[in-house]
């Protein structure tokens, strides 16, 4: 069989405008971001002299919309919006610089199809959302991106829901090609009435781990004190800092290992422990940060945030970081105490293989572009009709 390229499409309820896009994820490489491109298909009969527009927007939502109505406080902030007129076309299609997918779509869809193109500013956040509790309804705290097509008399005129269609997309980051040094840390603790100290070392194999990859933590303990280490507890902590609105911090343990191991006075221990941070083990927990959500099955724990130098953190919505915490529970005559260290690391997706340009000329499959919602979250009223078409 020949290779297939999925093209996502969505049509407004009145069939006046439809959007076709070759991908949903757009990569932020820190120094540059993938442009957003696609094709708008219009029906001149349905437009009846109106114009067709396409908008790229970035919205930060903090709290549910119904809370905003009750409290009289705006929980929705528009970080960025850019609108283009696509019909009547302001530029000859023959003069546009098109991608391979756009070229093929224009050939397949005919004379009523028009290309669009957006470039992201370099100071926009990536797509991140905080997981709601199972019984929560409505919109959750998130940074979201949307491509919206609509027809109206003018750009600022009131838009009928039936004449518009919105497609959620994601701005994502992948692991950098140049990786930093593997984290390593050590500490020495002196105790009252003990001539010698307790020494703890912990290290990781590398700085960046991929989603779904086990994290091996090497722990070395040299206990020359007169106290006993009663237990060794390891965990992966996710810190989500909501910097845009209120500077809230959400610290969640997303993986843990309660080893039960002990190290007596005068003894040593060297052991490798394995932690596996996965969303699958945290699906019921409110406040866990997730990568931008398009489908329930392809959501994962949020990737670490990488900031371009010179960009203010306050505009980046939700900042995410991770660390491994190694904690020793030390017993004594007067009760227990703790000795701990932290190992910051990055959790990200590997950079995918580049798609060869020749593959864009192979068979295309048009797929429904419709968001799958969390349990208890109703669909938006303006969700347009979308059907899966045959291969073209």
UniProtKB/TrEMBL annotation:
Pfam families: Arrestin_C, Arrestin_N. GO terms for cellular component: photoreceptor inner segment; photoreceptor outer segment. GO terms for molecular function: G protein-coupled receptor binding. Transmembrane segments: none annotated. One of its GO terms (biological process) is nervous system development. InterPro entries: Arrestin, Arrestin-like_C, Arrestin-like_N, Arrestin_C-like, Arrestin_N, Ig_E-set. Belongs to the arrestin family. This is S-arrestin. It comes from Danio rerio (Zebrafish). The gene is saga.
């Amino acid at each position: 069989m020949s290779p297939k390229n999925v093209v996502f499409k969505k049509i407004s309820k009145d069939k006046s405008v439809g959007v076709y896009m070759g991908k949903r994820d757009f990569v932020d490489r820190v120094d540059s971001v993938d442009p957003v491109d696609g094709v708008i298909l219009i029906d001149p009969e349905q437009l009846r002299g109106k114009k067709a527009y396409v908008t790229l927007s970035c919205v930060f939502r903090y709290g549910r919309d119904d809370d905003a109505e009750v409290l009289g406080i705006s929980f929705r902030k528009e970080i960025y919006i850019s609108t283009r007129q696509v019909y009547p076309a302001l530029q000859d299609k023959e003069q546009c610089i098109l991608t391979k997918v756009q070229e093929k779509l224009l050939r397949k869809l005919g004379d009523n199809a028009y290309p669009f193109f957006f470039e992201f500013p370099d100071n926009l956040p990536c797509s991140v959302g905080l997981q709601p509790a199972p019984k929560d309804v409505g919109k959750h705290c998130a940074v979201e991106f949307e491509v919206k097509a609509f027809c109206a008399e003018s750009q600022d005129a009131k838009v009928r829901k039936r004449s518009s269609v919105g497609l959620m997309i994601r701005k994502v980051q992948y692991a950098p090609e140049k990786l930093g040094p593997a984290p390593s840390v050590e500490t020495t603790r002196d105790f009252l009435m003990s001539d010698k100290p307790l020494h703890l070392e912990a290290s990781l194999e590398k700085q960046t781990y991929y989603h779904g990859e086990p994290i091996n933590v090497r722990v070395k303990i040299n206990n020359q004190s007169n106290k006993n280490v009663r237990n060794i507890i390891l965990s992966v902590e996710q810190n989500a800092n909501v910097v845009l609105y209120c500077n809230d911090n959400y610290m969640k343990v997303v993986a843990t290992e309660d080893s039960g191991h002990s190290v007596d006075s005068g003894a040593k221990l060297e052991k490798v422990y394995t932690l596996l941070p996965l969303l699958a083990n945290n699906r019921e927990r409110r406040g866990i940060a997730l990568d931008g959500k398009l489908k329930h099955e392809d959501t994962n724990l949020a990737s670490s945030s990488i900031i371009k130098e010179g960009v203010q953190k306050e505009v980046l919505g939700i900042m995410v970081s991770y660390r491994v915490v190694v904690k020793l529970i030390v017993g004594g005559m007067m009760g227990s105490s703790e000795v701990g260290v932290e190992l910051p690391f990055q959790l990200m997706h590997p950079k995918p293989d580049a798609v060869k340009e020749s593959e864009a000329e192979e068979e295309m499959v048009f797929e429904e572009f419709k968001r799958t919602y969390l349990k208890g979250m109703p669909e938006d009223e303006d969700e347009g009709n979308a059907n899966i078409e045959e291969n073209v």
